[in-house]
Amino acid sequence: NESPEALCTRLSYQKAASVFADYPESPVLGSDQVAVCEGKILGKPGTAAEAHRQLMFCQGRSVTFLTGVCLLTPFARYEATVPTTVVFRVLDTDTLSRYIELDDPLDCAGSFKGESLGISLCDAIRSDDPTALTGLPLITVCQFLAEAGISVPG
């Protein structure tokens, strides 16, 4: 009974915390992503059949990819969830099958790899941090690092 945002925040924190427990003197990043379409959470499909089912469901719809990031330091905890909206095209079943075969998105939330062939499945992508779609919102990470006093080149 968790909201998609709460799930995303919890998972990114748990990833960071599991490493931070072994390295409590070091800053540690954790990140995770949850895909949501019409209120339904789309997990990692695991199989080609499930990926095909998910992508058929997403056709002609907007899917929000929530990317959670958590920075743990010895002194503070920084967390954010960055949304990216992907508007999917309507595609035939053969095109979706070829995409799944070629891009192998079985370990990706919503069966979608925006950094690869998945880009051909969409009409539009909207985000304040375009790196969030690939799984790590680098604009947000740089902001967290600056707030934590950790220098970032640039």
The stretches of 5 or more residues where confidence is low (pLDDT under 50) are: none
Q: How would you describe the shape?
A: elongated
Strand content: 25-35%
Helix % is 25-40%
Order of helices and strands: HEEHEEHEH
Estimated radius of gyration: 17 Å
Sheet with most strands: strand arrangement: 2-1-3-4-5
Walk me through the structure:
The protein is of the alpha+beta class and 154 residues long. The chain has four helices and five strands, in the order αββαββαβα. It has helices at residues 4-20, 48-58, 93-103, 138-147, and strands spanning 28-37, 40-42, 62-72, 77-88, 122-127. The protein has a five-stranded antiparallel sheet with strand order 2-1-3-4-5. Helix 2 packs across helix 3. The protein is elongated and about 50 Å long.
SSE layout and pairing:
Blueprint: H1 4-20, E1 28-37, E2 40-42, H2 48-58, E3 62-72, E4 77-88, H3 93-103, E5 122-127, H4 138-147
Antiparallel strand pairs: 1-2, 1-3, 3-4, 4-5
Helix pairs in contact: 2-3
Summarize the structure.
The chain is α+β, with helices and mostly antiparallel strands.
Overview features:
154 residues, five-stranded antiparallel beta sheet
